[in-house]
From TrEMBL:
InterPro entries: AAA+_ATPase, ABC1_TM_dom, ABC1_TM_sf, ABC_transporter-like_ATP-bd, ABC_transporter-like_CS, P-loop_NTPase, Type_1_exporter. Residues 47-325 form the ABC transmembrane type-1 domain. Keywords: ATP-binding, Cell membrane, Membrane, Nucleotide-binding, Transmembrane, Transmembrane helix, Transport. This is ABC transporter ATP-binding protein.
Length: 647
């Protein structure tokens, strides 16, 4: 974490600080050094690029000298042969210059795009390694913008820094050499005008850099808003609460900021160009006056003056570029820095270097085949609190800045939780809302690590296991099972890409969803819609169960749906669950009476502690919190039959 200040964007209440300060982030030290490894793979291409650039710059500086010569030695003395000879040479040089420019463009594009590709792929892989906490805190739009806009900006650092600087410097030197060769007096006069170009560029350029950074942040905020509102869940919420006008106002406000900063950037850029244009025209007038007088006095040939003036115009281009180069490079380096910020984020849940593979069987029967047994899950005095912003993400990716820093001494969500979920058995978690049931299940696949205590699977501390082997052995089905915007088939194959058609059908059948899929016109090739919105909640959960069955993990973590289902769907889910949980060590946040009755062990969670444990009958008898919850929820709903909840 860098602890930088990020301007506060509006919250849902629509409040927005209109006069917030522009971001004044500075480049972190070491950024340039860190770029080197990214450029290294392109060093030969870069060398070629430099060579071609050198040739192009040489040709460009030589051409005006030829102009002067054709006038003084061909046109003025009226020697036709010399004129034709020079004209042909000029044409040849022009062709050569076009050729070098083309090669240069290709090289530069190849290097630039290659760099964008490398950075994006690395950043994407790195983001995937982040813990769940990172994703719960980060605004997707802001993150996507880092991988889109900033990566492109970063690429410019390399092309601008290397290609343009080399060309500019070289042209500058060669033009000066040519000028001194033709007339050292005029060359010195030209040099004296240069500071008039540099100072305005320096002052205005600094402002341009700040504006560019602000533009990036504002664009990311505008993008985040669209990202949140343009998905089904967001769009539904906007419609249900009739907030279209407010949404439009919010968007207008953000778009207006992008516009305003855009106007300021454009005006600043134009002012810079204008000042430089003015200075160079004034210098040209000076040169024309002094040079013209020398020609009139016969001290100077007219061709030499033409060559000098052409060279002068060529001098100001590079000088201008060179003076604004630090700004351009700085702007681009800022992008690199912003990408590095993401790459520097340490995943909160990381694999130890000496981590071992977890070897477990797919089911209880697997032990007999020598594949290892279905493992037990053990929580030993596990305490946990959710990490705060500073521990998991970048403030600039959260977008909403907090009025006061988050306290790090937040109360524990889980407090010394200890239990054993026996191998191949069903352990049910029940308790009031917010008790910590979901949190317990999140610690099993290491979405988070406990603050203290140990979670063990098959006797191994899960922090000693490789993340892949751990997660391979756990199947998780949440209440709102997520499906990717693709076909049912693609969603199922996500669990096991090599599954055959009969295996897919078998899994769907076992999850009691095959009849429905078979009745769809496109069958398994039906698109599920954004986040699976074309399927009902129960259907989505059954597809998720089919996906889990294809994965065939020895451990299942399940959050039962709380929604009331009709008796046919309820029966289907019930039977699908039975198949999914058989012979597996399962931890189920149970909402259904039938699941709770089937459970080998019920853990009653309250206020982050396990307050009661036992079977349904034993707990009812004890007359504690469980009996209380049961009375309130189940007895009341007993007449309704299926789907009562106990949370
Ligand atoms: N990502 C998070 N960051 C911070 N606090 C969280 C986070 N997720 C949950 N909490 C808090 O942790 C506590 C326990 O939440 P948890 O989701 O585990 O409860 P639960 O028992 O599963 O509740 P429910 O039955 O309503 O789903 C709650 O007070 C909740 O506000």
């Amino acid at each position: 974490m860098t602890g930088r200040t990020v301007p506060a964007p509006p919250g849902l209440d629509g409040r927005e600080a209109e006069d917030r300060p522009g971001p004044r982030q500075r480049l972190r030290p070491g950024t340039i050094r860190r770029i080197v490894p990214y450029v290294r793979p392109y060093r030969w291409l870069l060398l070629l690029l430099m060579t071609v650039t050198l040739l192009g710059a040489g040709l460009a500086a030589f051409t005006p000298v030829l102009f002067g010569k054709v006038i003084d030695e061909g046109i003025v003395p009226r020697r036709m042969g010399v004129v034709v000879g020079f004209a042909l040479t000029l044409a040849g040089l022009a062709l050569l210059k076009a050729g070098t420019d083309y090669v240069r463009a290709r090289m530069s594009a190849g290097i630039g795009q290659g760099l964008i590709f490398d950075l994006r792929v690395q950043a994407y892989a790195h983001v995937q390694e982040q813990s769940l906490a990172f994703f719960t805190r980060t605004q997707t739009g802001a993150l996507v913008s880092r991988l889109n806009t900033d990566v492109v900006g970063a690429q410019q650092a390399v092309t601008v820094l290397l290609s343009q600087t080399a060309e500019t410097l070289l042209t500058l030197v060669l033009v000066l050499v040519a000028m001194f060769y033709l007339s050292w007096q005029l060359a010195v006069a030209a040099l004296l005008t240069i500071p008039f170009l540099i100072f305005p560029a320096k002052i205005i350029g600094g402002r341009l850099e700040r504006l560019t950074r602000e533009t990036m942040q504002l664009n990311a905020e505008m993008g985040s808003l669209m990202n949140e509102r343009f998905n089904v869940a967001g769009a539904m919420l906007v419609k249900l609460y009739g907030r279209r006008d407010q949404e439009s106002t919010l968007f207008t406000r953000r778009a207006r900021r992008v516009r305003d900063v855009g106007v300021r950037t454009d005006v600043t850029g134009e002012t810079l160009a204008l000042v430089i244009g003015l200075a160079s025209t004034l210098a040209l007038a000076l040169m024309l006056g002094v040079g013209g007088a020398l020609v009139v006095n016969g001290e100077f040939q007219v061709g030499t003056l033409v060559a000098m003036i052409t060279l002068l115009t060529m001098l100001y281009g590079p000088v201008n570029q060179l003076s604004s180069l630090p700004v351009g490079v700085l702007v681009a380096l800022v992008s690199f820095d912003r990408v590095f910020e993401v790459l520097d984020l340490k995943p909160l849940v990381a694999e130890r270097p000496e981590a071992k593979r977890l070897r477990v069987g797919a089911s209880a029967g697997a032990a007999a085949n020598g594949h290892g047994a279905v493992p037990e899950i053990e929580f030993h005095e596990v305490s946990f609190r959710y990490p705060n912003a500073a521990e998991v993400s970048l403030a600039s990716l959260e977008s909403i800045s907090l009025p006061v820093p988050e306290r790090s001494d937040k109360a524990l969500i889980l407090n010394e939780v200890s239990f054993l979920a026996p191998a191949g058995r069903l352990t049910a978690l029940v308790g009031p809302s917010g008790a910590g049931k979901t949190t317990i299940t999140h610690l099993v696949p290491r979405f988070y690590d406990p603050v203290s205590g140990t979670v063990r699977i098959g006797g191994h501390d899960i922090r000693d296991l490789t993340l892949t082997s751990l997660r391979d052995s756990i199947g998780v089905v949440t209440q709102d099972a997520h499906l990717f915007h693709d076909t049912i088939r693609a969603n199922l194959l996500y669990a096991r890409p090599d599954a055959s058609e009969p295996e897919l059908v078998e899994a769907c059948d076992a999850a009691r969803i095959w009849d429905l899929i078979a009745s769809l016109p496109d069958g398994l090739d039906t698109m599920v819609g954004d986040q699976g919105y074309r399927m009902s909640g129960g259907e989505k959960q059954r597809i998720a169960l089919a996906r889990l069955l294809l994965k065939a993990p020895p451990i299942v973590v399940l959050d039962e749906a709380t929604a009331h289902l009709d008796s046919a769907s309820e029966a289907a889910i019930q039977s699908a669950l039975k198949t999914a949980l058989t012979d597996r060590t399962s931890l189920v946040i149970a909402h259904r009476l039938s699941t709770i009755r089937d459970a080998d062990q019920i853990l009653v969670v309250d206020g982050g502690r396990i307050v009661e444990r036992g079977t349904h009958e034993v707990l009812l008898e004890a007359g504690g919190l469980y009996a209380d919850l049961y009375d309130k929820q189940f007895v009341r709903q007993a007449g309704g039959g299926s789907g009562p909840t106990i949370s």
